[in-house]
Amino acid sequence: MVLKYVNGGNLRDYLRDNFKNDEYKLKFVEQIYCAKDLAHGLGFLRKESDLHSKNILIHNKQLMIADLGLFK
């Protein structure tokens, strides 16, 4: 098993902390990178995986999908 430390937490907490009062908005380029990262990760998902916002981690503004149901 290989583990990697991610410095940005999960997607749910990131959105909660950074979008409180519309103070922070993703730039268009950041939206494209997020969409690309998610699309790439979704290509590896199986039907029985448990994907939700706490399984999407952020490391240096790059999205990573974790916990693909391997420990059921």
TrEMBL record:
Domain Protein kinase: 1-72
One Pfam family in the UniProt entry: PK_Tyr_Ser-Thr
Gene Ontology molecular-function annotations: ATP binding; protein kinase activity
InterPro entries, per database record: Kinase-like_dom_sf, Prot_kinase_dom, Ser-Thr/Tyr_kinase_cat_dom
Coiled-coil regions listed: none
Xref: SUPFAM superfamilies: Protein kinase-like (PK-like) (SSF56112)
Record-given protein name: Protein kinase domain-containing protein
Organism: Gigaspora rosea
The organism's taxonomic lineage, starting at the top: Eukaryota, Fungi, Fungi incertae sedis, Mucoromycota, Glomeromycotina
